[in-house]
Amino acid sequence: MNIGQAASASGVSAKMIRYYESIGLIPKTVRTESGYRVYSDHDVHTLRFIRRSRDLGFSVEQIADLVSLWQDRERASKDVKAIALDHVGMLERKIRELQEMASTLKHLARNCHGDARPHCPIIEELANDDAAAPPVKPDAKFGALGKAAAR
């Protein structure tokens, strides 16, 4: 099947399929004489595996490890479990960070009159150079905007 058919069958866009191939997450596919990519049912199955992994928020690096373990019939399930539990820890940290951000914004919104006057504690806090906000860390999945920008 061609890339469009593989995209439809797997739920992964053609652009992402090309990207996954370029970074080695999936092997380079066979091409026709005219240069079109040809995908097998096995390739589509792998793309579905990747899509489900991405849906659960695994990073590309983690997915590469999971694909490798999935294809290794001699794998130890403890290796898969370790990746999953590491990811759960990261998700729980992200949840705490998002809850803290929501709490801060709720507090600021409660203290904003929301009227026609220009005074606004939300704007004042955002403009406060002395605020103790943690630095934004680049995230593998969401880039330099940080983890919270994704949702």
From TrEMBL:
Signal peptide: none
Coiled-coil portions: none
PROSITE patterns: HTH_MERR_1 (PS00552), HTH_MERR_2 (PS50937)
Protein location: Cytoplasm
MF annotations from Gene Ontology: copper ion binding; DNA binding; DNA-binding transcription factor activity
SUPFAM superfamilies, alphabetized: Putative DNA-binding domain
Listed Pfam families: MerR, MerR-DNA-bind
Keyword set includes Transcription: yes
Residue ranges of every copy of the HTH merR-type domain listed in the record: 1-69
GO CC term (a single one): cytoplasm
InterPro entries xrefs: CueR (IPR011789), DNA-bd_dom_put_sf (IPR009061), MerR-type_HTH_dom (IPR000551), MerR_fam (IPR047057), Tscrpt_reg_MerR_DNA-bd (IPR015358)
Keywords: Cytoplasm, DNA-binding, Transcription, Transcription regulation
Gene Ontology biological-process annotations: positive regulation of DNA-templated transcription
SMART domains in the record: HTH_MERR
PANTHER family according to UniProt: HEAVY METAL-DEPENDENT TRANSCRIPTIONAL REGULATOR HI_0293-RELATED (PTHR30204:SF94), REDOX-CYCLING DRUG-SENSING TRANSCRIPTIONAL ACTIVATOR SOXR (PTHR30204)
Name of this chain's protein: Cu(I)-responsive transcriptional regulator
Gene encoding the protein: cueR
